[in-house]
Model the fold of this input.
Amino acid sequence: MPKNFYEKVAIVGVGYTPPRPLTPDVSYKEMIYEAAVKSYADANLASHKDINGFITCAEDLIEGTSIFDEYTPDQLGAVQKPMHTITGDTLHGLATAVMNIQTGLMDIVVVEAHSKASNIKTLSHIINYATDPILNRPLNVHPTYIAGLEMQNFLNRTKTTLEQCASVVVKNKKNSLRNDIGCFGATLTTKEVLESPPTFSPLTQLQMANHVDGAVVFVLASQKTAKKLSKKPIWIKGCGWISDSPTLETRNWASCDYAKLSAKMAYKQANIKNPKTQIDFFEVDDTFSYKELEHLEAIGVYKDGTAGRACMNGELDPDGKTPVNVSGGSLGVGSLLEASGSLRTLEIVKQLRGEAGPRQLKKANTALALSWRGIPTTSGATLIFSRK
Amino acid sequence: MELKGTTISKQDIESGKVLFTRGDPNAHYTWDTGIGIGRYLEGLRKGKIFGTHCKKCNRTVIPPRVFCELCFSPNIEWRQLKETGVINTFSICYVNWDAQRVQTPHLPAVIEIDGATKGHGILHLLDEVDPKLIKIGMKVKAVWKRPEERTGAITDIQYFKPY
Done:
């Protein structure tokens, strides 16, 4: 593995449709087209014909269409161009785009990710198809129990309290109130979070992100082209992605290795020795309340059992020492399924460009995004971004 | 040549001698049709076939779309097309979903709709035609469901037949 990237790659354009719980007015193709047009304009592209390659981050079962990348060229301007699916989160797609460019074969690459979760009538069943068909599915339990199992283990192992987990929800929903694309902003107390209906104990209703629809399109370019196209290129300094052994019976419940190892991979490339001091803010997966804390500890920003206290103390607030999910995260903005990493990256691009409006952080030079592919996976990706 | 080995019988499976786990998918979707295809289907419900015209590329396409996939412009015009067309390509299908042979073959065809740019049309079924007589370039027209039976779906056209 190279110690440093061969060629610097930057995000030079971003376009998106605001996430919404329902989008009956547009097809997924029309949604992606809107995001693509905005993104290409943001990147100052003279024409969509200047783009060399395209990536869609999608799962066929989620889309309800097999070989899904057959259906993505039209709305991206990718007709008769290289186009392929990455069956992963947006961060996996961005990492792939970086490598595409680093081969030297492509100069400008587009990454698309979207969610039409509202169109999936049996989403829990679709998610359940990711569990083992012979050993797990016959038990016939709603698959979010897996988050309950993981949270139980995390609380026991780290002595994190339920109130500390609830404080993540309070923070992120509050942050979302200052984000114009947030769908689930709210002013809540930890008591209200914990007294919301129990779901998959120890989880309660308000500790689980809701799904939304939306599309995000990124334009990435090589160093030379990025500097030509954009006054504010956002450089990708490191990419890591890891899949652990996923078997529910034998996985390592005691350690969040996909986060730990993907961060380690990204830190090495970005020359990060101390993430807490070298990275200004973090956008990490918070599909469930405890995940934000678990992720922060796994990537070495906090020691085991200390992230919850930091959240309670306000350290993770926008004006705290370690701002986390200033965007509102998935709990506040909504979960875009495989496009959830798009929202993490979108917030980072806005912050690093100084375009985050009312939630603009004073210090925003380097940031980290972490995605998780959701239950039942042990897969995730980490990217590190910088203004320089 | 006689092959050595033990065959698995239906009874072996039914009696549990060979183990397997059965799974029946529960995958249901309701795809939003959106602006372009939504208006197309609304037209079909009214017995009309619509396409869109890109002025820049001078192409009229069907199924319609709210942007041109070639020049990427949203500057399109809606145009009502004819309910007639010519067969671009077809297949005579003798095998059913369960691999059984069918008595009356299914006849899918791509029909280039009159008024659209060459190469643009509808994928549908042919009927009221002797399969042996079907050929590329054959003129066909839409046979519609009765207005009260239409739901705003591609099946509002029952099939195409020669005329």
Summary: Chain A touches chain B at residues 23-30, 33, 37, 47-48, 61, 64, 73-75, 77, 79, 116, 118-122, 125-126, 129, 133-134, 137-138 (CB under 8 Å). The mean pLDDT of chain A is 96.
